[in-house]
Write the structure tokens for this entry.
Amino acid sequence: MKALSQAEFLRAAGRAADLPPPGAPEIAIAGRSNVGKSSALNALVGRKALARTSKTPGRTQTINFYALGEAGLLVDLPGYGYARVPQALRARWGELVGAYVRSRTSLVGVVVLVDARHPLTPLDRQLIAWLGDAQRKLVLLAKADKLSRAMQQQTLHAVRAELPGAEVLLFSSLSGHGVEECRDLLEDWLAAGRGNKSPR
């Protein structure tokens, strides 16, 4: 059975002290507020409402952990960059996510969702640079179904050229574009994190 299909909510962490002890390999999902992280997570695990979606940006305020059987964990990070969230709350989220990403020994890779219609905003670039070369990175060009096929390819080539150290895929939770390819790659990461095989 595929690891992602076994996803079950495990716990939420609102402070660094609430993070579960590191152990099994973890894959984190990051992205701007309202870019479709929850929809992407639901598409990847094949469930309609495992992660709650909301039209209100900034709704996710905790790091949410989903167990993937014994294979590892999927970790939903709070969205970044929503101006209406109070500055103090944004700062607290930044500290929480920073503490997680910098210190998490079981983190094997990060999936970064960006809007295919407006890829690589300054905040996206800042996050990707912040992750550095220590983490495997997969950039998903979300909402790709909103673009023509020609624009999809143009955007894909442009982002790949700018981020040669990252995997970049077109992705749509609505149409399913890129979902299976993304699943396969994440399964590889989890297997590599368990020492079973080398990542692609």
